[in-house]
Design a protein that fits this description.
The chain has a single domain, classed as Up-down Bundle (Amino acid/polyamine transporter I), CATH 1.20.1740. Helices cover 80% and strands 0% of the residues. It has 16 helices and no strands. Helix 4 crosses helix 9. The chain is globular and about 55 Å long.
């Protein structure tokens, strides 16, 4: 029970990660390529692991967030993050919320207006965060992750049982437009690298609730969350491969249409009786991402502004309301441009991955990190290999344009 009580930031990480990357990209990877992109799925999760792990490690060692650490290394890094966050946060929030809205409209069947559903979900999540703050988010995520895991595993078992022919295990390297999909898939798998910053923020908040959390407990919490993202990612690839591979269905970029296609195709293959389970798993997946993203971006922005202006003013509520209002405005006035906005956000997330990987490694190896908390030499060496891979892949993509 003590271990469960100390869980929190790792599950919030999982809640933020298990969203568009899993429900949309992993499912499409399975639907379009069968098991053919398992190589990309495994490689990106393995090579990104240490850079995500450095977030909670730094937080437990110093009691500070990664943003504090960036400020110590150089103010220019704070400015870079502030600019990047400004460019991305509205688009990412709208991207995850529009999928949630589509699934909610399909699940509850009240109205098909994405703008109404999207705005309602943003308002509900905002109220939950304002009233409950971190404690409510922490407790809510434990329930959501358990429910999500149960529903997803059950759906995968049923899919295996109902499948007459398994997709081939031959691994493939997409070309042409498929390469852009691969970039987006790997860029958001298991999550954009800047979520390591969010994780460090949640870890600091957890330390306020539970004193004297050890490094061992922190890494255990992170590993539980990270393992959950990998297992569920594999499940969604499996569901896409077993249920949708060679279905000849072209997925829509519109949230409601995509949600209906996804749920209807699962229901057609798994049976009408499992429609509720699939719908609940899908909606739970995206709702967890929506609320964690809505919480994390304002926290990160508030901390960044505090450090840049050297003030102690908490801007969380201001940025929460700003993000909520901006996202609702996108639903109302820029809904037709959502596909382009999402594509820009995913590619930008991939291209900035080497930067965040490098700065996290730089910080964790610096004089600002207590020696007793620094990673083992083997993990540092592995991190350099990971950084080389991520950089080479990004350069390769740019050359191919």
């Amino acid at each position: 029970m003590d271990k469960i009580k100390k869980l929190g930031p790792g599950l919030l990480f999982a809640g933020a990660a298990i969203g568009v990357s899993h429900l949309v990209y992993s499912t499409r990877a399975g639907a379009d390529y069968g098991w053919g992109l398992i190589w990309a799925f495994l490689i990106i999760n393995i090579f990104k692991y240490p850079f995500f792990e450095f977030g909670p490690r730094y937080a437990v060692a110093t009691g500070e967030t990664l943003i504090d650490g960036y400020g110590k290394i150089g103010k220019k890094y704070l400015w870079f993050y502030a600019i990047l966050n400004t460019a991305n946060m509205f688009t990412i929030q709208a991207a995850v919320t529009v999928v949630t809205a589509g699934l909610a409209a399909h699940f509850f069947g009240i109205t098909g207006d994405i703008a109404i559903w999207g705005s309602s979900i943003i308002i509900i999540c905002s109220l939950l965060l304002i009233v409950g703050k971190y404690k409510l988010l922490d407790r809510l995520m434990k329930f959501i992750i358990m429910l999500l895991t149960f529903c997803t595993f059950l759906a995968l078992i049923i899919a295996f049982d109902n499948s007459n022919e398994l997709p081939p295990l031959i691994q493939v390297l997409p070309k042409g437009t498929g390469l852009l999909f691969l970039i987006a898939f790997m860029g958001w798998m298991p999550a954009p690298m800047d979520i390591s910053i969010w994780h460090s923020i949640w870890s600091v908040e957890k330390q306020k609730e539970i004193k004297n959390i050890s490094l061992k407990d922190t890494i255990y919490d992170f590993n539980v969350g990270y393992l959950a993202t990998i297992l569920l990612g594999f499940c969604f690839i499996g569901l896409g491969a077993l249920v949708m591979f060679n279905s000849q269905i072209e997925f829509s970029n519109k949230g409601l249409v995509f949600a209906s296609q996804l749920i209807d195709l699962y229901t057609l293959n798994l049976g009408e009786s499992f429609s509720t389970i699939i719908s609940l798993a899908a909606f739970t997946t995206m709702f967890s991402t929506t609320i964690t993203t809505l919480d994390a971006s304002p926290r990160a922005f508030s901390k960044t502004i505090q450090l840049l202006t050297k003030t102690n003013t908490n801007y969380y509520l201001f940025f929460l309301l700003t993000l909520s209002t901006g996202t609702i405005a996108i639903f109302l006035f820029f809904q037709s441009e959502m596909a382009i906005l999402v594509q820009v956000a995913t590619v930008l997330s991939f291209m900035t991955t080497p930067f965040f990987a490098w700065i996290n490694l730089k910080l964790i190896s610096s004089k600002f990190m207590p020696l007793e908390f620094q990673p083992k030499k083997s993990l540092i060496i592995f991190s350099w290999f990971g950084l080389l891979f991520l950089s080479a892949f990004t350069i390769g993509y740019l050359i191919s344009l």
